[in-house]
Amino acid sequence: MTLPFALARRFVAGETLADALPAVDRLLDDGLYVTLDLLGEYVDDPARAAAFSDEYVALVETLAAHRDVRGLNPHAASISIKLSMIGQVIDEDACEAHLRRLLDRAREADMFVRLDMEGTDITQSTLDLFERVYPDYPDHVGTVLQAYLHRTAADVARMIELNARVRLCKGAYKEPPALAYQDMPTIRWHYRQHARRLLTEGRLPGIATHDDELIAAVKQIAADHGVARDAFEFQMLYGLRPETQRQIVREGYAMRVYVPYGTEWQPYFTRRLRERKENVFFVLKALVKG
Ligand code: FDA
Hints:
The chain is an alpha/beta fold and 290 residues long. The protein has helices at 17-29, 46-69, 92-108, 123-133, 152-162, 184-201, 212-224, 242-250, 266-275, 277-289; strands at residues 33-38, 77-81, 113-115, 141-146, 166-169, 206-208, 233-237, 254-261.
């Protein structure tokens, strides 16, 4: 079934980059940083993977030009990509070639590329691909670790050893108890442990959460350990807690908003609805308002 885009509008900035740029500008105007994500995942056709790879290169070029016209520093705008969109589940070597082409362009434009983390069927593959490219682009590529996974303490240690930039999130996919913690108090407990290590030993970690309890804990850890407010950043998703995003900036922290756009928004949109009943409410409210 094809759903109308109007349903997703609160969480997805547009179906094209041109549609999304006004939303990006509003965020930048308010002192927020952005990371743009062209939506799409688990592509199983090499031609489509190549087309998405081209579209990502064009995104880097357009976004870098936009950033430069606005006179912003390179840190203000980055991109996020799911490797499964550029052929990871078809052929890892071809995926690496697409990724390197993107990273070459990103390095030229001084733009950071975050490799999103997906389901556990490709966690190891994503980290392997990351380690294959990282030595050639140490300032322009980083990865994501998910606090709900049992393996993450070891992955945090490895990323610290590499001095690689990590975004820490809880994890958005449905995973079995053998691999992932299932209950919120346990996931939060692990999130805090990983955040502490990344803040005190890591390099510019991204603290991705809308959870007040974790945001307060991270502020406290930073204060207790003398971690400067510009030595890490909070990150939230487009359309979620916009007032809180701005409040955090007013407090002197960096806040990066993850801005998804594109026609393939259904899996992303479904994850947001599954996460919180309030998100379903927002969609229903928007429908009633028309
Ligand atoms: P969660 O939904 O668990 O809610 C916890 C509490 O936070 C709530 O009880 C409430 O108190 C508060 N809260 C949350 N949302 C609120 C709202 N809208 N209004 C008011 N209060 C609210 N996942 C993944 O697997 N791979 C990835 O690469 C990424 N990337 C990523 C980037 C960014 C920038 C973010 C913010 C998130 C991701 N995620 C992700 C998603 C992540 O793993 C997770 O699924 C969601 O962030 C939901 O978890 P939270 O900790 O944000 O709050």
